[in-house]
Amino acid sequence: MNVLHQPGIGADRRAAGALAVLRLVHEQPGISRAQVAELLGLSSSSTTEITARLRARSLVTEHAPVQLGRRGRPSGLLLPHPQGPVVLAAEIAHPGWRVAAVELGGRIVESAGGRRARMPRVALADVRGALTALHRVFGDRVTAIGVSVTGTVSGTTLVQAATFRWGEVDLRPLVPRALRGIPLAAGNDATLAGLAEARRGAATGVGIVLYLAVEVGIGGVLVVDGRPLTGSRGEGGEFGHMPFGDPEIRCPCGATGCWDLEVDGRALARLLGRRTPADPRGFAGRVLAAARAGSGPEAGAVRAAATALGRGTGALVNALDPELVVYGGLAPELHRTARPQLDTAFRDALMEHRRRQPPPLADTALGEDAALLGAAEQAFDLVLAPGLVARN
Asked: How much is the pTM?
């Protein structure tokens, strides 16, 4: 039986309080009972009663209390229960795929990965097999599945993955047969990475965040108060397909002049007079390493790509007005390797009044795990939802 939806947590006032406490433990593992009571406006006795019920259902555990400098008994620290709920997260990216079991609180407890097959049917079967193996380990603790894909996603459909040369793909077949019926959420990899950075990474506590990641192309999202803005069909954030590039170059997406083709490994290859690499991300990593080692041609190519990244970032800041910009993927390396060129292009692209106090450019705090953790966050959003609890 699903541990989050056992009889006893019903659609009543107590259930709403329990759900609110559980969300706080998920968002802030180690939060004290006193802080929970203050944030939710609960009495001490109500908070104690709710946390006791959550402990009894193996949803949270309480660690040794801490003294907060106030009179009375010190307050215990609430953490996810070690046998509590988990979600399964999957990431399908350009070179490969990963799967993970993620516990309440956002910690990856087990993971696996492999190379991505070229054909969608085979790739989904590989991921399904790995998710099945994780389900054997965690059993009824699995409450939902989240999927991150490099491409445009609407609902549970991959609408287009230009860098994979995939068209429309239904993602539901990657769900193991034994788990069909549990909630499934899917999203673009950069969107989900931005979600994770806003909730658990470099932008924690920031109200309006622009996340940009260079992988094969560039993607991103605007996150407002911990929620990604993805448009009417969930397909927003395709910043890499804005016409910030050469209008004479056609992108695999079908448009011309895409920013994608100015900042990634394909751009670096073109600038160096090389053929388009089979692995643009790996190629970009090698060019960046050569540039840092002092190679002239590679350094020049990196400066050009960094300039394109800075200019486009400035344009998006003008349009979206974020408090903070977070770079992920290869973008931090581009910034570190060609900081003067990127910073200058960024400032030159800003409207004059913005240059006095531009938003900071920060690097990812979650690194390669960002998209996978974002997929898990999206899955937990489905689980920790009042409507879902009420229906169970």
From this structure: 0.86
